[in-house]
Amino acid sequence: MHAGTTDHPSDPGILGRAAELGRLDRLLGAVDGGGPQVLVLTGEPGAGKSTLVDRAAERGRDRGLGILRVRGSEGEAGLGLSGVHQLLHPLLPGEGLPAGQREALDRAFGPDAAEYELKLDQLSLCVGVLGLIAQAAARRPLLLLVDDAQWLDLGSVDVLAFLARRLEGRPVVLLLAAREDGVPARFDRAFPQITLGPLSRSAAGQLLDAQPDPPRGKARAEILRQAAGNPLALIELPRALARGRTGDMGAGGAGGATLPLTARLENLFAADLPGLPASTRAALLLVAAAGPARLTDLMRAAPELDVVAALDPAERAGLVRVADGGVLLRHPLVRSAVYHAASFHERRQAHLALAAALAGEPDRRAWHLAAAATGQDAEVADALAESAERARGRGGYAAAATAMERAAELTPAPDLRARRLLTAAQAAMFAGHPQWVGELSGRVGPMTEDPRLRAEASLLGGWALGVTLRHEEALALLLGVAEATATSAPDLALGALSTAATSVYNSGAPRHRAELDRISGLIDGDDDPAARAWARAVIDPVHERPLLTRHVAAGLAALAQEESLGDLTALGGATWILDETEQAVRVLGLTMDLLRRAGSAGTNATVTQALALALFENGSWTAAEEAAHEAFWMATEAGADNVTVGAGVLRATLRALRGDPATARAEALQAVRGVDLRRSLSLQVRHRHAMGMAAFAAGDHADAYEQLRATFTRDFRPAPVHYHASLYYLGDLAAAAVRAGRVDDARTVVDAVRQDLKPDPSPRLAAVLHRATALLTDTDDAERHFRAALDDPATDCWPFEKALAHLDFGEWLRRRRRSAEARPHLNAALECFQRLDARPWTERATAELRAAGAATAPAPAGELTPQERQIAELAAQGLTNRDIAARLYLSPRTVGYHLHKIFPKLGITARAQLRDALTQEDQG
Questions:
Q1: pLDDT of residue 9
Q2: CA torsion sign, 207 to 208 to 213 to 214?
Q3: In 3-state terms, what secondary structure has residue 485?
Q4: Which residue in 295, 383, 765, 806 has a CA-CA distance of 20 to 30 Å to 827?
Q5: Which strand (E) or helix (H) includes residue 175?
Q6: Phi-psi category of 529—alpha, beta or left, where left has phi over 0 and alpha has psi -120 to 50?
């Protein structure tokens, strides 16, 4: 009888899994649209994940889906992109793909991939994989199955995560199964997930009774107790009982100690081995040592053995399956049991035999030699280090870090071992794994007395701590390095100072800025103007602005001679903090280009977030939203908490400004859940601003004021909570105060800030301050401040802030019966709000214009962005949202969002009007 359901054929492997089978059916149905296209299946070893993956494959075939499958292998976890290669092998080499995509696939998987010296652009590879899957799905809908994902190499996980986030609109679904404690970080929170828990006692009893020799009486109860609902244990323990191997089980009864379930199952799997012929056990050990085992490799490794014949008894016993030139173990725990049932000598001989058989595959050979090593071995370490360099040359930083870490462990010379660990940490940083970076860098210090190596390790450790919002610990390391090397190694000191500056800014604590200032003064020379400009900008971006702009100019001039990733990043931050926003967009864009060319996915998250902020301030909101979205996913995958929170807050702010306050509030709260914002004042005030603008858009001006007021202290003389970020919210604070009846309180804030900003704030800050002062002034002197906020052409760089000043001034003029003077300001505000799709402010400006006696009209078609124009033209040709999405690598939802903005810009209400509207615009 089938437990819990009658909808699926009877199969003991799926007893008690009715809900999970229903979820699989819904996943398969999503290939036609209408539901999530990715599902993550987790559970403890033996919970039945592989059984459900097999069932998904069966039902997918019944539906006519093409099946692509990969099973992670512990033996290949260190081989870059081995998992993706296994998944895509039936589709390669990708005939018919665009040349760039085909070239990226050839570099990664072609016959010369191992020796390919050019760097592999990670983004190009991901796009190539996406193109290959899309090409196959155009012929036949696809089901992608990933089993044992906890053993996939990190490079493959990165590619699969990229693919999973871009399935919408394509007839492709993905099922990924992993142990519950081993779900890859890229999949552990981002996608729908179901966990296979223990079977109910009823279902467990049915499964136990369905076995060939079901136990009875006390033995039955004992097996049910020890199996604890684990399906694999319920299948294996009766076998052990039938062989008389459960004599110790009773000892695990009341008050008795028992082994963990996973260890117990691994030992049970090994119980099958003694009854097999010696040749079969030898062949099984080769299979276990090889990981994914190809028959040809096994035959070369054991020429004296008839491998196929030797595996026959194991296949009859159900331990392995031989098919398609490969050997698959029944379950990963079988591999573990077989492997650990052998002596170290036997395992070592297996690895050496495989290494000899794989002489033409240097990467796999190096790993087998490493597994066979009896201790530190310089030759093997060198081979593995060379494998790491090849992986890094292809952009496989995760594989490079794994290989270099193992190479370090095998390296006899302490300094070289430390240097290799440091190299592994650097690769892990570029792969985007800050926790791993911290672990690796922390092991360098105890094994070397070289002060520079120790300092570089501390610098990397400090970076990892800062990225994960542990600013206090990060600065203890980084400022210590900067001070210790200020005279002996000023280049290293400036690097540490520049890295520390990011945590100093995010922390916002005055004592950290004071320390940064003090140590900066100890470092001689101006060899690195970019790093010094960033550090000095963080210390005091307001009062030292004239001097700092000269530092920035020197750094930009140096960049013209040679592009440096560190200098670009530092100058991007410095130009942004100094309100050179257009320059910041340009420099950060160059930084992103350089990172992509290097295939460095990991560090992109922080740079992408900085670019998103600059684009937001620059009025490029669509691009800012896309960058924030990309930064959020990269940071989520990398564990870069500062970016995860920051990008989430920026996305919430954009939601609020575009007229979705409820979602904005929910996203802002979600972004900071579990985060102590007192330790990161920049995020604290940005979160308050997002919440305040959401309240303002919803018409709750009292709450808006309280949220924005919290960006300044409640002292007798209020001060910014964050010395820099808080200042830009003064205008919004004043606008909320006017509507909430809190003008007097707001004036105390503005008056205090005005004194602190003297004598020479940036044009942007000056405009913000003039707008706030004008709004809070109840005399005709307000007009002078409004005009001062608008007259400087430099403020055109911040269009939304300028549009708000136009709107406020227009309202002020209309209320004084100066409607003719008000209308140009209101029109300027409306044009900007429409372009940005700032709907609450568009409605306000429209209402004010009508009250001022002006007729409002839709924005002309010429204001379509290039992407909107492209979407409009494709829609005018009759393409559906899904067709457009597939052509432009967007989601159908994104296409619909853009069309929602396009229609009012063109003054139309239906898709059928697009062709005429675009024609009229072209003729005009």
A1: 33
A2: negative
A3: coil
A4: 765
A5: strand 172-179
A6: alpha
Q: Which residues contact 112 (CB under 8 A, 6 or more apart)?
A: none
Is the pLDDT at 599 greater than 70? The verdict is: no
pLDDT greater than 70 at residue 87: yes
**φ, ψ (nearest 5 deg) of residue 889:** 55, 45
> Minimum mean pLDDT among 250-259, 400-409, 866-875: which range?
250-259
Measuring CA to CA, how many Å separate 380 from each of 78, 345, 360, 403, 409? 15, 18, 16, 11, 11
Structure tokens at 20: 């999970």
Which H or E run contains 406? helix 397-410
The phi and psi torsions of 741 (rounded to 5 degrees) equal 70, 35
**Region 442-463: what's the mean pLDDT?**
91
- N residues, the chain: 924
Q: What is the dihedral of CA 438, 440, 444, 445, to 10 degrees?
A: 30
The DSSP line for 668-685 is HHHHHTT--GGG-HHHHH
> Which amino acid makes up residue 104?
A
Instruction: Give the integer Cα–Cα distance in Å for 503 and 680.
Output: 9
At what angle are helices 434-442 and 451-467 packed, to 10 degrees? Answer: 150
Locate all alpha helices (DSSP H) within 140-215, ordered by sequence. 154-164, 201-209
pLDDT, the chain, mean = 84
Greater confidence (74 vs 708) lies with: 708
CB-CB neighbours of 787 under 10 Å: 13
Q: Alpha-carbon distance 456 to 470, whole Å?
A: 19
How far does CA 687 lie from the centroid of its chain? 21
Helix, strand, coil content of the chain in percent (nearest 5): 70, 5, 25
Note the pTM of the prediction, 2 decimals. 0.65
